[in-house]
Amino acid sequence: MKEELILKSEESEQENREYNYFQIDFLKAIMIFLVIYDHIVYWDIKSLIGVALWERISIPVFLVIMGFNLGNSFRRSGAKTLRELYSRQYLKKKVLRYIIPFLVLYLVSTITGWILYNFNIIEMYNTQTYPTWGIINLFTGILPFWGPGNWFIPVILQSILIAPLIYYGFTKKPKLTLILTFIIEIALQLIVFFFIGEITSWEERHILNLFMTSVLFYLSGIGLGFWFSQDHKLQSKHNFFMWILFPLSLAYLVGYQFFGFRIRIDGFPLLRGDYHFLVFPYSAFLVLLALRYLPKNPEGRLAKNISTIGKSTYHILLIQILALGMMVPFWGTHYAISNGFNFSEILDLLVPWALTIPVGVRWYKIDQIKNLRERILYTAFLFVAYVALIILLYSFASSV
């Protein structure tokens, strides 16, 4: 019996190694560091150091990886029909993985906000959320006690609903489906341009945010990931078109970053946001490079720790939304670095990493506990201790 259990354990470990891509975990780990960096460094500094080519790639890379992982997961499941793809098992897995942690964050952040704003809900909402986000945006997944990166949560949650349909399209007509992901995204950009145009009121800003928190607004990036899940070889005929799109995307980003290039018609921007179909091929090509040149399953503690961070990025994102959102009541902003990178500013960069990444990893590990009572108790203890610690640190820093 013991030998049988050992054999099953070895088979399970071998299966996990076969389907796991260290390259993907490595990319996700690096990108979550960059996401936090993006949220604490003022734009005046970032605009001077070419972030479009190395730091602002984090969300596009995450979107490509999202499609890549979903495509591989569906293929491993063996599901072929839409009924099978939208199975109860699939939905349950996504609820446990994404929705429940978000609901935990929603509860914790809202209670924390009430405390920090002396239980004045109106003041909390007006300071944290309004007018940048309107009441209508709260229904998409924007938190009443907002924090940077919150906009990406609706994109993740909506992907749960459309991913099976996208995969089904790729199994039937992959080329057409990939083209359609670009067409749908472009169509939404055109709708925003023609029907919203110049933003002249906060109400129009709120409507624009509805589009910019929609997964369809970034569909080509996810579509490229689904495409790579079928064949991610860099020099494959399957991916030949990337050798054309990559230099075009790179040229656009260089022009955008260093020469102020913008696509405008009658003075109004044709494309909204920093993440769209002209940007994604650059990051997608970097994903292909990582899959080609990084090891798939390296040994060692360092590789294991990197993989753990990579698998915990969703929980880390949620934790940093809470931690950096808590900065606003104390200092009126979540940006901590504004004067360059002297010793003090470097410390301001390292501290948020240290306060969010290990805690996000711990939360991810707690969510793997099978015993529900233990998982609830550990989660409650984690957040009570963490919120108290952050409040103490911010209070101390404010008094110094």
What does this structure look like?
It is globular, with a radius of gyration of 22 Å. It has 400 residues and is an all-alpha fold. Strand 1 (264-265) and strand 2 (268-269) form a beta hairpin. Strands 1-2 form a two-stranded antiparallel sheet. It contains 19 helices and two strands. It has one domain (22-355).
Summarize it.
With about 400 residues, the chain is mostly helical. The chain contains 19 helices and two strands.
In round numbers, the mean pLDDT is 93
Number of helices: 19
Low-confidence stretches: 1-15
Largest sheet: 2 strands, antiparallel
Mind telling me the C-alpha Rg?
A: 22 Å
The number of E-state strands comes to: 2
Based on CA inertia axes, which overall geometry fits? globular
H/E element sequence: HHHHHHHHHHHHHEEHHHHHH
Please state the oligomeric state of the protein chains shown.
Answer: single chain
Number of domains: 1
Distance between the termini: 63 Å
**Major beta sheet, strand line-up:** 1-2
Q: Helical percent range?
A: over 70%
